[in-house]
Amino acid sequence: MKDIIFDEFQNSVNESLLRHKSILDLMSKYTESSARVNRAIAKAVTNCGCIKINATKQHLLDENSIEDLCDCLNTHVEGELCDNCREVIEREMGNNLFYLTSLCNDLDINLYDILLKEQDKINTLGKFTFR
């Protein structure tokens, strides 16, 4: 069932893309959409203030095991997105997903296959993927 949802989305993207058919257009639009996601998150911090970024050096202790790393590493995000900021960020992430899917279409790559391969890699390597 999930593959049907992904395939339908990928087909819908393919049918709705009119102006930016060139791979060069898609690459630049994908990059631009990534920047817009970053900008929306920054605006949630600087304009709205619903979240705060408190970034400091990550402190790893020598005795930490791989399993303990999740507990000692921090996202540096404090607070929660307000409804407005969440809506803007979700919209920008949706645009980003649209252009990623468009790139997949131009390169004849199935988005669901990518998801499955990535999930398999994560499940196989677990925390040893070191991302």
Morphology call: globular
The chain-level mean pLDDT equals: 88
- The SSE order reads HHEHEHH
Proper CATH architecture? Orthogonal Bundle
> Can you count the helices?
5
CATH topology: Helix Hairpins
Per DSSP E runs of 2 or more residues, the count of β-strands stands at 2
Strand order of the largest sheet: 1-2
Structural class based on helices, strands and sheet pairing: mainly alpha
Please, how many domains?
1
Could you give a short account of the major beta sheet? Answer: 2 strands, antiparallel
Q: What is the percent of helical residues?
A: 55-70%
User: Beta-strand level of the residues, as a percent range?
Assistant: under 5%
Q: What ranges have pLDDT less than 50 throughout 5 or more consecutive residues?
A: none
Oligomer: single chain
Rg value: 18 Å
CATH first level: Mainly Alpha
- N-to-C terminal Cα separation, in Å? 29 Å
Organism: Clostridium cibarium
Protein name: DUF1573 domain-containing protein
Description:
The protein contains five helices and two strands, in the order ααβαβαα. The mean pLDDT is 88. Helix content is 66%, strand content 5%. The chain has a single domain (20-129), classed as Helix Hairpins (Orthogonal Bundle), CATH 1.10.287. By secondary structure, it is mostly helical. Helix 1 crosses helix 4 (83-106) and helix 2 runs antiparallel to helix 4.
